[in-house]
Amino acid sequence: MDIISLPALPRPLIGISGRRTSGAAIGAPYGFADAPLEAYLSEYATSVLRAGGLPVHLPMDADPAELVARLDGVVIVGGDDVDPRRYGQTPGPFTPLVDPQRDEFESGLILAAIERALPLLGVCRGAQLLNVVRGGTLHQHLAAGEGESHGSYAYPRAHRVHEVRTAEGSVVHGLYGESTRVNSFHHQAVDAPGAGVTVTGWAPDGVVEAIELDGLPVVGVQWHPETFGGDPVFDWLVDQASAHTAVAPTPATESVA
Q1: Among 31, 20, 25, 120, which residue's Cα sits nearest to residue 67?
Q2: Which residue of 45, 46, 131, 166 lies most exposed, with the fewest beta carbons within 10 A?
Q3: List 106, 148, 212, 226, catalytic entry
Q4: Are 143 and 209 in contact, with CB atoms under 8 Å apart?
Q5: Catalytic site includes residue 173
Q6: What SS3 class is residue 117?
């Protein structure tokens, strides 16, 4: 009997953004301390691998649209503040050094992913930038010691310090149930949601912890799921990327039983 054997589809290719720094950050030898350096926290990549995806780091000098055209999914990672001028405000007394190049690059990734309906996960700053790209605003500063102390860096990165309540029918509700406990390493959060942005998760003090984009496989979370060693949001991203992939199967091969 002839059996049609279909080749396995390749792992979906998930692009992960990083940050630009210099050789001094890794103790580069004399003459290379000021050399440009792309830095990537490896827990994002290992989370994608664990979920079944193939991670690739995205260099900031590349064209975002060209990169996204080759990808099956995107992760926009955490980091420093988004430039307040991108949402109609000016830097305040708690604004650290901003990175306009990174803002521009990651905004381009988000816009290109949305245009292609590509699965996208925004983490911490990535969720905030997603909201800003859609025309929303941010709370510029959440003071440490108030509410859930979102600005506190007192705990290990994987320590779950507070609860998040999720909206029924949302992606995060399907992943975590009515509530979950998360870590907290941020002093900013979504304020006014942007166009098509729906808030789907809240801390007990009302701070926005999760957002989704209506009708698209796009999720932003304020916590850092990459630290937990197997958070279901990465399974969701890889599953969505697998379903979206435009890689056509190769012609079926035949074998004889």
Answers
A1: 120
A2: 46
A3: 226
A4: no
A5: no
A6: coil
Q: Are strands 73-76 and 13-16 parallel, antiparallel or unpaired?
A: parallel
- Known catalytic membership, residue 124: yes
Domain that holds residue 104: 2-138+188-256
Point out the least confidently predicted range of 67-71, 83-87, 163-167, 240-244.
240-244
**180 within some domain:** no
Provide the CATH number for the domain around residue 91.
3.40.50.880
* Catalytic residue (choose from 106, 162, 224, 254): 224
pLDDT band (50, 70, 90) for residue 79: very high
Whether 249 shows a pLDDT value over 90: the answer reads: no
Question: Model pTM?
Answer: 0.91
Give phi and psi for 104, each to the nearest 5.
-65, -45
Does residue 248 fall inside a structural domain? yes
- Structurally, the chain folds into a number of domains equal to 1
Q: Is 226 among the catalytic positions?
A: yes
End-to-end CA distance of the chain: 6
Name the catalytic one among 106, 124, 150, 162. Answer: 124
173 within domain boundaries: no
